[in-house]
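Sample entry (1002 residues):
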Amino acid sequence: MAEQTPFCIADNLLMKLGSTVFHEIGLAYGVVSELRKLEDTLSTVRAVLVDAEEKQESSHAVAVWVRRLNDVVYDADDLLDDFATEDLRRKSTDDRRRFARQVSDFFSSSNHLAFRFKMGHRIKGIRERLDDIGNDIPKFNFIPRVVISGNRGRETCSVVEKSHKIVGRDEAKKHIIELLMQSSTSQENLSMIGIVGMGGLGKTTLAQLVYNDRRVADYFDLKMWACVSDDFDVKILVRNIIKSATNKGVEDLELDQLQQHLQQYLDGKRYLLVLDDVWNDDVPKWGQFMSLLPVGADGSKVLVTTRSTRVASVMGIDSPYTVESLKDEESWELFQSVAFKKGEEKMHPNLVAIGKDIVKMCKGVPLVIRTLGGILSFNTQENHWLSIKDNKNLVLLRNKNDIMPVLRLSYDNLPIHLRQCFAYCALFSKDYIFQKQELVQLWMAQGYIQPLHENECLEDVGDEYFEDLLTRSLYEVVEHEDFYGEIMGYKMHDLIHDLAQSVVKSDIIILTDNVIAIPKRVHHVSLSRATNEVPRDLMDKPIRTLFMECRSDDHYIINRCISSLKCLRVMRMRLGQQKLPTSLGKLSHLRYLDLSWGSFENLPSSITRLKHLQTLKLSQCQNLKELPRNMKQLINLRHLETNGCIRLSYMPRGLGELTHLQTLPLFLVGNDCGECRKKRIGGLSELKSLNNLRGQLVILGLSNARGSEAKEANLEGKHYLDHLTLYWRGSVEATSEESEEEAVSVMESLQPHQNLKELSMCDYGGVRFPNWMMNNRLDMLLPNLVTIQIFFCKRCQVLPPFGELPSLKHLHLRNLPAVEYMMDPLSANPFFPSLKILMICDMHNLKGWGRRDVTTKQTPSYPYLEHLYLTNISTELCLHLISVPSSLKSLEISGMEDVTSLPEGLQHLSTLQTLQIGHCSELTTLPGWIGLLSSLTKLIIFNCCKLASLPKEMRSLRNLITLRIKDCPYLSERCQRETGEDWPKISHIRQILIDKEWWADL
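Predicted structure, serialized as tokens:
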């Protein structure tokens, strides 16, 4: 396939050349005329780019023309960047000159003339090359086409319906789950199950449906997912399995150490391991891998997805499950859900008829159906639908199983401004899970995002681009879990990834141990090798993106390599070195720098020379002690990601001058005393002008703040913040009365904007909550608040009227020992109208929700409460809270020392699915009415030392899948398999764990 045309970058150049900034630069360096000529020629060429991209498919000469254009456009982009960089440096030096009253040698008149002379020659050379390209336009009969840059089609929604509609897989899912839950028929505990089918049929989707099913989660002690793909390496595969099992990386371990870890985590557990997208059929390699895998407890399974029956056979799977194509009615149901909005098909009966013909040609392949539906969803013109129906590639699909030409339609039908954005994803490895913000930042760095007007936010435009590609089914939504719960991510189907790679050809390359040659004209490189060498072939190439992951200790080579890559816009480094290369400061074009997970203690001060830097990622750099003093010189910085930098103790003064900042997840209030007095420490006032901040903001060290400066933070003016965490950090045991009042004063000054969705407080030392929280109109001040978390605020006695908040869904209160009640609401509004999750822990003095005693006056209904967790609170309050909700799905009761039997109110909870009882030292028996909990699937009992037996009504719990008992000596003995007195009462339960290591799954 031919190369992409540089439409986005050409548009970006034209926008720059037409701006006031570059007009001033042209005047300053005497190149106005040359820049205007460059703009005119580029406008002429840009007008024919769409036609040229289509014609190069059938003309080698046109393909060569496009290649020449790509090269000169990239050079022109570098040229304008150099002008802008020099202009920023000159203005910066002029400012310093005013204050310091000294002249910089670098900007002497002779140096200024030398730069002007050099740049004049570069402009002339680029313009002459571009003129030659423009002069060839008549020779190829290119037709100018009007393309509105940035036209984003129909409006799309940022909320996606659980990835996409899935049809026709219920029976397959049921069958696979039954296979997983069968006892092992061999002498060994570990069994293998295979899912086989051609690409695009939905093997991975089927495996995900099974993997996330509640019955599977309850049956297995541990679940793990590892994508294998075509680059099979035993060590990497074992690492990924361990990471899936523990959420911890083990990058530096050798194979024997990895095996020990694997044994430690899996031995004795009934586990499910999914190996997705397996290609390799090397018998010795699989033999080596299987020898490393512990057999686990009885019922452990390995589920494999592959396109090849031979792969299944090599892995010892004799009868894999073959995924069938969708039936006609299922195919139409899927297509209709993608191609039409709800009810829209009734308005277009002509399109329905054409659509049904198209669906029949898709041969029941979900990926093809979804992709074509995505293409057609953006255009309701009948001729457009007919052009897809009559496309030769779709017609050929009737006779062949090669779906790649059909998928190419999804690229050909993309708006021109989305093509480079889509193709750039070829830089990621297959099955790489990325975040939307990450990808948008990368697009910004490459100049792919074109706003319709000057004041439009680049990130907002990028979000629209992303949602457009997602709607077209070029990305898939994946939900994966980390230690903190579920987080949303995205990836490309492996065939869509193949499509992206076929589009970019040698422009983007992933360097692994199997790839030796580096193309001369490569522009984007991902280096991921097991060896520690940095390829010297990288040096001096026009590379604009470099993802580097290797463990080289050769500082000289790394420094030399980096300093030679003068065109870099994007760099991601994972070097494992304790000292960063100083040559980073020479990458003047750099927009995106990702140093996350680094082991370095300091950033080189030269990094502040990067005037164009937009994104600086320092996530999980746990050794990083401080940021450079001159951070304020990064005048274009928009995203500073410092989450997980646990050794940072302050923010540098001047950070507040970076008014473009949108991402600043962590802000530390430093202690300006002792050794720290010598440092330029920035206080809360640095936040004053950062009103573009978005997403999450965690403020640590508020015990170092004063009320007077807290007001300067201006949190009320930060409209785009979603999550705010206020952390005083440290013990409050020795807090004086004066510091208590200071804490209240600080908190009074930190009122957020009403758009806030999540508020967290920890270690607050004040004796009362601020007035803005203790407000009878709190529902008006924070109408959008969804989550509240308050931890370790040990002096507050009265809670704010949280029951008034209309959007509150999650309330978590922990270790508030002095709190007795919640402020009485004055309005007659519903009490906790939206609450779904309530967690109350370590609040022994809490008597009720109000001073007027809500328990006897007006009983709240909690209409939507689904999850209730009560730990170490009064028995009276516990009984009250349990007696009210009727929609509970899960309930945890822990630390109720004087409870002798379960509350009677529980028997009416017909929706309850999970019941967990712990640390109830006086609990002696479970009531017979427990058999009425017909929906119960999981029962967990721990540390109930006097609980002596289970009632016979346990036999009535036919939906109970899991019973777990730990540290209940009498009960454990009576529930022993086959021999225990209570065994007949529980023998029907599928999973019974007694005194085993199961804490990680609670």
